[in-house]
Amino acid sequence: MTVLVTGGAGYIGSHMVLELLDAGEKVVVLDNLSTGFRWAVPAEVPFVQGDFGDEDLITETLARYGVTAIAHFAAKIVVPESVADPLGYYLNNTAKARSLIERAIEGGVQHFIFSSTAAVYGDPESNPVTEDESLKPVSPYGRSKLMVEWMLQDAAKAHGLRYAVLRYFNVAGADPKGRAGQSTANATHLIKVAVQAALGHRPGMEVFGTDYPTRDGSCLRDYIQVSDLAAAHMDALRYLRGGGDSITCNCGYARGYSVLEVIDVVKKVSGVDFPVTISGRRAGDPAAIVAGNDRIRAVLGWTPKYDDLDVIVRQALLWEQHLQKQRTAAASNA
Ligand code: UFG
Predict the structure, then answer these.
(1) Which of 23, 242, 288, 326 is the most buried if burial means most Cβ atoms within 10 Å?
(2) Residue 149's domain is classified under what CATH number?
């Protein structure tokens, strides 16, 4: 009953590994370390360095560790990058996922949990958006993920694999015990950027547009704490093991904060009034996207613990300080 976590050395995957370990599960991590970090995987967890598109490596890993479930996190996730390199995204996120699903079926894996995204909705007509809303992704990133949702639906019908597709909204924060966090270099996500500005790791930050049809003109997003998101995967795993049908769920708190509100919270929690410039809109940003979460609460029994922006921002600040100490220590040892 081992769970294979692809991308387990990355931001969300590493929190899933902690969640699994805390629940006493057996885990193996596969990661090519293109954006993840070997140190992010606890020493007691078997680690396979490689690509999830490497079919022989997947077959060997599934057999060697007796894998019965896969949580597939490994992916490229930067929307503007997907616009510049669509074929790279379709290769990595779509074509390689196809081969992973095929090897999973051949290897007798019963349950597959897939990291999908709110980007499959594009710019929704109304909010909160439910899972039955029409799917109109506006970026190659969103399309690369939606195609995997379709493959899973068809493969599940044909081969009996059962899956949970989890559509993430804006993931933020860090492990409450300080064991993991968002470590990606050059991250572009709002809370990470604002926290770096508060800590003086960057001179300030920009707000991409204040002319949207929202309450203060800046974009509205649903920020979900990363351990709550990992817990949703555990709930999905228990649900599938308990015989639940394949399912697709939004992961968010059903409430939105504007960019300006988030920045105010970061200033309040950090106590630093860092410079903020208002710039033009960033290409591809929907004005508002908020998760309808009735399904995940009702069917998976998901009960979030950290639905509090102050708490999420505090965790992000602490993790950024931890990374800074790590960098300073590495520099003084060099
Ligand atoms: N923003 C700024 N300044 C910054 C960074 C972000 O104003 O320095 C704004 C963005 O324009 C956007 C909001 O903050 O309005 C949130 O931006 P993020 O980059 O943090 O996140 P996104 O909403 O663009 O992306 C998230 C996920 C993607 C997913 C997308 C779907 O990270 O994987 O939601 O809508 F595809």
Answers:
(1) 288
(2) 3.40.50.720
Q: 29 and 142 in one domain?
A: yes
pLDDT, one tens digit per residue, over 164-208 is 999 999 999 999 999 999 998 788 899 999 999 999 999 999 999
Give residue-wise pLDDT tens across range 77-125: 988 899 999 999 999 999 999 999 999 999 999 999 999 999 999 999 9
Q: Is 163 among the catalytic positions?
A: no
**237, 259: one domain:** no
pTM over 0.85: yes
- What are the helix (H) ranges across 205-308? 226-241, 259-270, 294-300
Q: Is 53 a domain residue?
A: yes
Determine which one of 141, 163, 212, 253 is catalytic: 141
Show the domain range for 262: 190-219+255-326
How is the beta sheet containing 162-168 ordered, strand by strand? Answer: 47-49, 26-31, 2-6, 67-72, 111-117, 162-168, 247-251
The domain boundary residue, chosen from 251, 267, 294: 251
Which of 35, 78, 79, 82 best tests ligand 1's pocket when mutated (most atoms within 8 Å of CB)?
A: 79
Sign of the CA dihedral running 211, 213, 216, 222:
negative
SS3 122: coil
